[in-house]
């Protein structure tokens, strides 16, 4: 059954407004926090072939959750206190039962949003999604037309993404956009903002491309740590222009960490004023299309707590070591320059899904504006160099070494690397004791 048939079959009923807030709630001692938001990879089926795709989407997994299982999962998310469910993919709307699940999410009092590449999102699909209860949709647009189409692996992808924005707005959805910040997109961002503003977006999320999934196979698109200074010069101009246009520039968790723009970047985000450290397994969680529950949608095996089919959502959220990891971590787990940083106790090494795919473990994050500026003042810079390729699985990663060297090219040629930080053993490679904490 396709979306058209499903839309005709569903009754038209009034949807209650969402009753749950995304604000962080106080946590009693020993009590698990309430997951404010869950990002659900509804299907791995996709109609594009993106060079930076974390899940390496394309074909639908043969063991994806059935409609009945998905409906039970919705019930469990509501019971856990989830305030918002964001459907992603692949492409969520490629599953014909998406309308039924959207409606179930809304009927259980949760908000329902979606992130999409928009390649096949027609006017009819947009109207059906809004009618079912999708409230806001973020369309992924990475640079101007030539850059976007090249990164997305499909001709006319850029034009189709903008058409999707127009279809969604006409159908009554709030619209926003999200964009990868990398070596290819950086020159296009200011021109792209003007085009997005003309479409009436309310927010624009910008995130640094992470070295996971397909992006691990394309290190040429990744920013080098020392390039964060030049990148933030662009970001500062984007902030000023967004403020003038009334658009909220929303930083992804891979962007930020206490540089001079931190307050302006995060004053409109859920972490108001400054970064509070990685929120994986603290404020939200993720579910894969075949029911794996993770602490963060961008993490691979290292963030998987277990199978929803086997354990259920609540048990994994409350007790799986991979999910509670961030709740229990201390400064003792920081290493490299992050261990001695002035902001270490609050930042805790930044975004886990940025640092772990680079260096094998969280706790040392070279993709930091503050860090790049501090090194630059000393005449130094950092760069990354691949040492191990990714195996080719969803959300996998290779490994990189981190090289500290002189900023001046003549000194660099004379002295070579000053230090070389080799990648560390991944959390998933560590020996594990017998038994399961979920048993």
Automatic annotation (TrEMBL):
One of its GO terms (molecular function) is catalytic activity. Residues 415-439 are annotated as: Disordered. It comes from the Bacteria. Keywords: Iron, Iron-sulfur, Metal-binding, S-adenosyl-L-methionine. This is Radical SAM additional 4Fe4S-binding SPASM domain-containing protein. The keyword Protein biosynthesis does not apply. Residues 32-248 form the Radical SAM core domain. PROSITE patterns: RADICAL_SAM. The keyword S-adenosyl-L-methionine applies. Its cofactor is [4Fe-4S] cluster. Residues 421-432 have a biased composition (Basic and acidic residues).
């Amino acid at each position: 059954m396709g979306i058209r048939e499903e839309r005709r079959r569903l009754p038209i009923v009034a949807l209650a407004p969402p009753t749950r807030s995304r604000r962080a709630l106080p946590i009693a001692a020993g009590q698990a926090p309430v997951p404010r938001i869950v990002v659900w990879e509804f299907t791995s089926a996709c109609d594009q072939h993106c060079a930076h795709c974390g899940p390496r989407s394309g074909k639908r997994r043969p063991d994806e959750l059935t409609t009945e299982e998905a409906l039970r999962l919705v019930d469990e998310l509501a019971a856990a206190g989830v305030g918002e469910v964001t459907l992603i993919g692949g492409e969520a709307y490629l599953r014909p039962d998406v309308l039924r699940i959207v409606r179930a999410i809304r009927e259980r009092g949760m908000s329902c949003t979606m992130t999409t590449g928009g390649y096949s999102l027609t006017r009819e699909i947009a109207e059906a999604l809004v009618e079912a209860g999708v409230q806001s949709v973020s369309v992924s647009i990475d640079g101007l037309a030539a850059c976007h189409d090249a990164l997305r692996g499909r001709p006319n992808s850029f034009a189709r993404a903008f058409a999707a924005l127009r279809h969604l707005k006409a159908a009554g959805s709030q619209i926003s956009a999200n964009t990868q910040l990398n070596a290819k997109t950086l020159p296009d961002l200011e021109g792209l903002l003007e085009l997005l503003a003309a479409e009436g977006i309310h927010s624009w999320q910008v995130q640094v491309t992470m070295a996971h999934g397909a992006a691990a196979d394309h290190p040429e698109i990744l920013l080098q740590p020392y390039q964060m200074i030049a990148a933030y010069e662009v970001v500062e101009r984007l902030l000023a222009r967004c403020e003038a246009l009334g658009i909220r520039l929303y930083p992804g968790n891979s962007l930020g960490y206490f540089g001079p723009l931190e307050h302006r970047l995060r004053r409109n985000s859920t972490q108001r004023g400054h970064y509070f450290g990685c929120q994986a397994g603290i404020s939200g969680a993720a579910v894969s299309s075949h029911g794996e529950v993770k602490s963060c949608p961008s993490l691979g095996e290292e963030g998987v707590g277990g199978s929803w089919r086997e354990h259920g959502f609540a048990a994994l959220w409350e007790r799986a070591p991979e999910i509670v990891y961030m709740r229990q971590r201390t400064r003792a787990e920081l290493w490299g320059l992050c261990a001695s940083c002035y902001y270490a106790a609050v930042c805790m090494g930044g975004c886990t899904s940025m640092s772990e795919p680079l260096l094998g473990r969280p706790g040392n994050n070279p993709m930091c504006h503050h860090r790049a500026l501090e090194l630059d003042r000393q005449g130094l810079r950092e760069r990354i160099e691949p040492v191990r390729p990714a195996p080719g699985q969803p959300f996998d990663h290779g490994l990189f070494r981190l090289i500290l060297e002189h900023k001046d090219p003549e000194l660099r040629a004379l002295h070579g690397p000053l230090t070389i930080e080799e990648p560390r053993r991944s959390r998933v490679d560590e020996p594990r004791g017998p038994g399961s904490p979920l048993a």
